[in-house]
Amino acid sequence: MSSGEGDMAGDEECLEPVEGPPVAFALDDVTTEPGRMAPGAASRVGLSRVTLGVRVGRFLAAVGEPGSGVTELLDCLAGTLPPVLGRVHRAAGWPVRRVRPTGLPLELRAWEVVAREVPGGGAPELRCLWRAAGLRWRSQRRVADLSAAARQRLAVARAAAAPPAILLAAQPASAPRGEGAALAAALRGVVDACGITAVLSTADAAAAARADTVVFLHRGRFVDVAAGGNSGAVRAYQDRIGRRM
Question: 83: which DSSP letter?
Fold first, then answer.
């Protein structure tokens, strides 16, 4: 993707170049309906004319504060928030999986949690996942004994255990920085090692910089896009967007 100084809201495109691997998913001029997610819950932001494409084996970070639309973007990709306008396309044979550190079976050892998801329980696949997710020295520990950051890594490994897949992960704004760093590092690892496609929603510039591409949302609209790899540059984009808005 390329970046310009102006807004990317409305009908401007945010698509990766035509050359390269096939597209894992694409949103074509998608608009969703705002509203409440549940009684007593915060209001849901509506996405507004979002166009986005991500290729197989790429890592995208969607950056925004609460109320920016990053949560709604993940829900739309997951199929739990259908568009009222536009279309969502997903590659055939690429299931969408949420990365959920909550609900891990506390009584099992880390390797058992992932082995149950690996087709055939193959040892080479498990070893690859351990290295990629940064769990190599934690495989024999029980989940109950793992730190919150290690559980983030374990959740990524479990979701990535049966590729191909599109992983959707959310870093809550209230999460400690160490947890966000572990989540982003594990996603980066499985994308590189396993050919997984991943999307991370976050407000943390350091976590977002792990991605190949970073898109910025504000009130349900794309407002800018940048290459990943440099947390200082991502933070500068956030500051500039904050001044514009």
Answer: -
CA distance 7 to 170: 24
Q: Is residue 30 in a domain?
A: yes
How far out from the chain centre does Cα 147 lie?
21
Local confidence pLDDT in tens for the 245 residues of the chain? 333 333 333 333 344 444 557 899 999 999 999 975 555 556 788 999 999 999 999 999 999 988 899 999 999 999 999 999 999 999 988 899 999 998 899 999 998 999 888 876 667 778 888 899 998 888 889 999 999 999 999 999 999 998 788 999 999 877 788 899 999 999 999 999 988 999 999 999 999 999 999 999 999 999 999 999 889 889 988 888 877 76
Q: Which domain holds residue 50?
A: 23-244
CB neighbourhood size of 199 (10 A)? 28
The domain total for the chain is: 1
Percent helix, percent strand, percent coil in the chain, to nearest 5? 35, 25, 45
Question: Which two structure tokens, joined as six digits, stand for 3?
Answer: 């970046």
* Cβ neighbours of 151 (radius 10 Å): 22
Terminal Cα distance for the chain, rounded:
23
